[in-house]
Amino acid sequence: MSESAFQIFINALLANNFVLAMFLGLCPFLGVSGKLDTAFPMGVATTFVMLVASLCAYGLNLLLTAFGLEFLRLISYIVIIASAVQLVEMVLKKYSPTLFRALGIYLPLITTNCAVLGVALFQTARDYDFIQSVTFAIGGGAGFTLALVLMASVRERLQLSDVPSVAQGTALSLMLAGVLSLAFMGFAGLGG
Amino acid sequence: MSQPTAKTWDEFMEGVWRQNPVFVMVLGMCPALAVTVSAINALSMGVATTFVLICSCALVSMTRRFTPKEVRIAVYIVIIATFVTAVDYAIQAISLALYDALGAFIQLIVVNCIILGRAEAHAAKNPPLPAMINAAGMGLGFTIGLFALGSVREIFGAGALFGVPLFGEGFQPWVVMVLPPGGFFVLGCWLLLFAAIERRKQRKLVEVTENV
Predict the structure, then answer these.
(1) Are B108 and A114 within 8 A, CB to CB?
(2) How far apart are CA A140 and CA A18, in angstroms?
(3) pLDDT of residue A1
(4) Residues of chain B with pLDDT under 70
(5) Dist CA B147 CA B152 (whole Å)
(6) Which of B78, B69, B79 is nearest to B131 (CA)?
(7) For residue A20, what pLDDT is reported?
(8) Per-chain mean pLDDT for chain B
(9) Are the beta carbons of B34 and B181 closer than 8 angstroms?
(10) Could you tell me if A30 lies within 8 Å of chain B, comparing CB atoms?
(11) Which residue in B27, B89, B192 is closest to A166 by CB distance?
(12) What stretch of H or E contains B153?
C-alpha cells in the first residue's frame, strides 16, 4: 500500500515501461510497429485487454486465495486473457472490419502477449489493491502504446533513408529499440 | 534404416540451426532479452523452456486425435500452463536464488510464442516421438541463443562468465550491457553478424555458378 496510484501510473508508463525496460510484449512491438496507423489501434486494443484481464485477475485471485487454490493461478489467468481477447476480436470485427484485417494475425496473438499476462502476474506478486491494479493496467497499456507509436514513427521515417542492405529488417529494429530504451533509461527514478 | 535416422537428425538440427528460434525466427524475444543478464540465468531459462516445450509437445501430439479443431489453441495453452506451473514450483524448490533472479519470467514461459508455435505447427500434425525430437531441437536452439546473448552481456557488463572474473582489477564494467538497452543491442549485433555471414555465403554461391 506504500505506492500511490499516481506513482504506479508513472512507473508503468515511463520509468519501468513494459516494452523498453521490462521486455514484455516484444513480439507485437517488433511485428506491428511498421506503420503508424496500425500501431496505435494495436496499442489501444492491447490496453483494453490488459484492463479487462487485470480486473478479472484481481477478482479471480481473491477467489483462488479464499479456496487455497493458488497453484491454479497461472492456468486461470491465461484462460481469462484468452476470453478477453476473443471479446475484443468480436467487437472489432463488428465495428471496424478494415482494422480487423489490418491487425491480422497479431490480434489473436494478444493472448500470448507477455505484457498482458505480465500485468496480471505482477499485480498479484506485488499485492496491489483494486485501485492500484487498475492504474497499473492503464499505465502499462499506455506505456505499451507509447512505445509502439514511437517505434512506428521512427520506422516510417527510416524507410526513406539509406541503410546498408545487410542491416535491414529485424537487426535494424532491434538497434532502434535499443536507442529508444536508452532514452527511456533517463526516466529511471521518476516514479520514486 | 538409414533414411529415417537421417530424417530424424534433420528434424532435430532444424531447430538448432536452420530455424533457430532466437536468431532466425526471432520468436520468444521477451524472456530472451529480459533474463539474459548473466550466462547462468540464460542457461536455466533455456533448460526450463526446453523442458516445457518437450513435455507439452508430447502431450499435444498424443491428444491430437481427440482435440476439437475449434478449441485447440485453448487446449494447448492449458497444457502448456500446467507444465509451466510444475516448472515454477520445481525451480522454487531447487534454488530460491535462481527463482528470485528469473522472477515472473518463469511463469511467463506460458506465453512464449515458440512453444505455442511448435504445438500448432508441428506437434498437432505428427506422432509423439518426432514431435518430441523436433521440440528438443527447438529447445536446444533456444538455449544456445539465450546463452549467446547471456554470455556476451555478462562478459562485457560484469567482466565475468558464470560469476568467474575474466579480466583483472582494472576492468571497467560496461554497465549498459546488463541494462535493458544492452539486450537490444547485443541481439541486434548477433542478427547483423548472421545476416553478414548469410550474405557472404550467397555471394560465394553466385561466384561459383558464374564460373561454371
Answers:
(1) yes
(2) 6
(3) 47
(4) 1-5, 168, 212
(5) 8
(6) B79
(7) 82
(8) 82
(9) no
(10) yes
(11) B192
(12) helix B128-158
Contact of B47 with B198, CB cutoff 8 Å = no
Nearest beta carbon to residue A27 from set B29, B85, B176: B29
Q: How far apart are CA B87 and CA B52, in angstroms?
A: 8
How far off is chain A from B184, nearest CA to CA, in Å? 5
pLDDT tens column, A38-74: 788 888 888 888 888 888 888 888 888 888 777 888 8
- Cβ atoms within 10 A of the Cβ of A69, count? 11
CB of B113 closer than 8 Å to CB of B21: no
Q: Where are the strands (E) in B112-209, listed by range?
A: 160-161, 164-165
Q: Nearest to residue A33, comparing CAs of A131, A181, A156, A128?
A: A156
Q: What is the pLDDT of residues A75-105, one digit of tens each?
A: 888 888 888 888 888 888 888 888 788 777 6
Interface test with B, best of A114, A144, A165 (most B CBs within 10 A): A114
Integer Cα distance of B142 and B14 in angstroms? 12
B21: contact with A, CB 8 A cutoff: no
**Using one digit for the tens of pLDDT, what is the confidence trace for A111-126?**
777 888 888 888 888 8
Give the chain A residue nearest B183 (alpha carbons): A178
According to DSSP, residue A15 is labeled I
Q: Which residue among A27, A78, A177 places its CB closest to the CB of B113?
A: A27
The whole-angstrom separation of Cα B207 and Cα B212 is: 9
Residues of A in contact with B110 (CB under 8 A): 74, 78, 117
ipTM: 0.78
Nearest residue of chain B to residue A74 (CA atoms): B81
**pLDDT tens readout for residues B87-143:** 988 988 988 888 888 877 888 888 887 888 888 888 888 888 888 888 888 889 889
Beta carbons of B30 and A24 less than 8 Å apart: yes
Cβ contact (<8 Å) for A121 and B84?
no
Between A17 and B47, residue with greater pLDDT: B47
Cβ neighbour number for residue A55 with a 10 Å cutoff: 17
Note the pLDDT of residue B4: 58
Is the pTM of the predicted complex or chain greater than 0.90?
Answer: no
Closest partner residue to B33 (CB to CB) among A26, A112, A169 is A26
